[in-house]
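Bug report (template v2)

What were you trying to do?
Predict the complex of my protein with flavin mononucleotide.

What happened?
Run completed; filing so the output is reviewed.

Input:
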Amino acid sequence: MRAVLLSTTLFALLLGAIPMLACAEAAPSEEGSGETIKLPLPRMDSEVSLEETLAQRRSIRSFTTEALTLDEISQLCWAAQGVTRKDRGFRTAPSAGALYPLELYLVTPDGLYHYDPGAHELAVLSTEYLRGKLADAALRQSSVYSGSCIFVITAVYARTSKKYGDRARQYVHMEVGHAAQNLLLQAVALGLGGVPIGAFHDDRVADVLGLPGDHEPLMIIPVGHPA
Ligand SMILES: Cc1cc2nc3c(=O)[nH]c(=O)nc-3n(C[C@H](O)[C@H](O)[C@H](O)COP(=O)(O)O)c2cc1C
């Protein structure tokens, strides 16, 4: 089984695509089978200016069925939460007290993944098809059914409240906005589209993803090729 999974992952890497992101049974909160997918290094330049991405950004809710490549997945994860200064662990998005309460999960038609910013890799949590259930939990919004990759940003409030007490909730909510906008602008720069989704049942989303008890889902962002 392990050999098959590794070979399918390698195949996906060779194709430069993510459709074969593989893995084990649905035990998402426990970091799955221990399989990981090393992401390609993110690029640090672009043909598109920041100003152009700002001007072009629009909420996109209809997508083609084309999968995202592993390069695109890598770039989007990095934009949202990538490490930009290794010695201090600083990331692309600011964080109150540099405490980094946010976690990034990805749902594709092939499964569920968790992004590790330090290693810039994905932990494969499940190969179960979860996108439909996730969309059901998001008031059946069509963008969640059709996004090629659905990013779910969760937060562990305790990481911030241990220093900032009651103020933490506000800080964490500000931070998810930073991370989400980074991701959405990066999507535009890659010729992709996305939409920030705030309307969903928190407990149902947590249930579908099998989130650890201290992870609260704050935003869902379907991304794909605009239809
Ligand atoms: C906090 C927040 C929650 C949102 N929730 C949803 C949502 O659940 N579904 C949706 O289709 N769009 C959602 N949106 C996107 C807005 O509808 C969209 O940003 C707005 O219509 C302006 O359009 P624009 O993003 O293209 O500029 C949300 C946006 C924000 C900032």
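What did the reviewer find?
The longest helix spans residues 168-189. Confidence is low (pLDDT under 50) at residues 1-29.
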